Amino acid sequence: MRQFLLMIVVFSFFRCSSSSTLFPTISDKPNDSTISSLDSTILERNIDTATAINLGKLIIEKQSTISNIETEVYAHDSKLVILNDVGYCAYYGNDLKSAEGLSGQSVRLSVFDINNPSKKKNYEAFKENFTYKTLKTDPNHPCYTPVLFITEDSKIRLLCKIYEKNIQKYYYRDFDPESNTFSDPQICKINLPNSNNLEDFNLNSIRSSLKKLFGNDYKLSTDFMFATSDPVMTEKGILLGLTVGKFTADWKTDEGITLILKTLDFGKTFEVYSSPDARKIDSKYNQQFVEGAFDFISDKDLVMIGRNSIGGILKCESNDFGKSYTVPVSLNENCRFNTLGSKPQLIKVNNGVLTMWNTTENYGNFNARTVLEIRYTTDNNFCNSNLKIIIKNPFGCHYPSIYKYNNKYFLTYTTDSRRFNRMSTGEIVFVKLPF
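Predicted structure:
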């Protein structure tokens, strides 16, 4: 019965009801060109490189900045959902310092009309060194990696990694689209494997889960955790990718995995569901398969891609509802792709799989993540995936989030048209994809 109710809720996400009260003063006509379709047959056509680049140029022309560009000098890692023609984009931003992971970094929610994204409002969701009624966050520890759910009562649930007494934890708050207010923070919970006990969702409970999943001899580093995937809706629950590992300036020594969590209550509580095993990756790569993006290509068949600091983009598969996985293999080597070790994206579209990843081509002089390829395949052989769109942005184009709404696909990603320094990522942009 719970699974049946979950299916009803999931399908209700895509209904189109009366307009929200969020923008009662908007009198401008919607900018229809912002979300107009470029070519509804792109996925079925053979696209040459020149055409793919031109399609990317059109996307850049149509995109709109939705982060708080008025005050921010840093913005990164967006997550997108849409409800009743209103977009909700969570990301982390900083008004003081233009690099990741520094003091002053907070998690924010941008709320905007998808037909006219210039009409936006930005809200602080989680801040460091701040006292809420139910939480006091640590000073000089940034807030990180948001996740968004739409709840059964049409609230926007925002999860965030914070530090409390120097311990990494995940909390959530619900944003009410009617009152434009957040609920008080509540800690997320983890139901450990083979246990009926709910524990706080923190790094220690995740470490315990890894040992129960892989055995007490689990040796990979677990210095940090980040919820990195978009939620994937299934009949059995909602799945979410949690990256756990070690991340340093020297990527060649990094290691870690993408752990799959399952929730039946939109992020209040989770259970550890499964994970690929990075320890089995070919020894010529490091033991790393992180920031995984995944989706089901049939009722029981799941495909996942993730990044690896040596192997570029890796792929693995599952044919038992995402419980067990093949050993991750390098698409750079197997398919001779020139993918870059940056967070990829994957989603089922029609009867195929759409992928997005950065390539090693450096289109600008500031940031290596300047070229984003969009490919599509219908046979689950990624080596045969056909190029559709190339977004070449000298100011950066990376960390994409994609969301399906009313049978259309919308994208947010990280860029920086202002360029405060070489590795600066100062804004989040939004655009409708042309299929």
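Summary: The chain has four helices and 28 strands.
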